[in-house]
Design goal:
This protein is α+β, with helices and mostly antiparallel strands. 37% of the residues lie in helices and 17% in strands. Strands 1-2 form a two-stranded antiparallel ribbon.
Length: 93
C-alpha cells in the first residue's frame, strides 16, 4: 500500500503542479470555498494502482452527489467508523 503522508508544502506544490486554467484557486481551501460558494459539490479522492503502485489524486467540483448517494456514503462512513472512517457534517449558509 503506497504512503500518502507528506508535508503541507509537498501537497501545496502538488496542487500547484496540477493547476489548470479555469480552476479557481491554487490551494485546497480556495478550491473548497469556490465550490461551496457556487453551490457545487467538492470531492477529493486518492487512488492507488494495484498493478504499478502509482498514486493519483482526483479533485472534482460540480453537481455529482444526489441525495441517495449521499445517504449511502454517510451510512458507509458511519458503519466503518471503527476502521478509521470519518465524516464531518455541519451547517452551511
Amino acid at each position: 500500500m503506497p504512503s500518502w503522508s507528506g508535508t503541507v508544502d509537498k501537497h501545496r506544490l502538488l496542487l500547484q503542479n496540477l493547476h489548470q486554467p479555469g480552476i479557481p484557486g491554487e490551494s485546497l481551501p480556495e478550491l473548497i470555498n469556490a465550490a461551496l460558494a457556487g453551490d457545487q459539490d467538492f470531492i477529493f479522492t486518492a487512488e492507488a494502482d494495484p498493478d504499478t503502485g502509482s498514486c493519483s489524486i482526483h479533485a472534482f467540483s460540480g453537481k455529482f452527489i444526489v441525495s441517495y448517494i449521499l445517504r449511502k456514503l454517510l451510512g458507509l462512513a458511519e458503519a466503518e467508523r471503527n476502521e478509521g472512517r470519518w465524516v464531518i457534517t455541519g451547517e452551511w449558509k
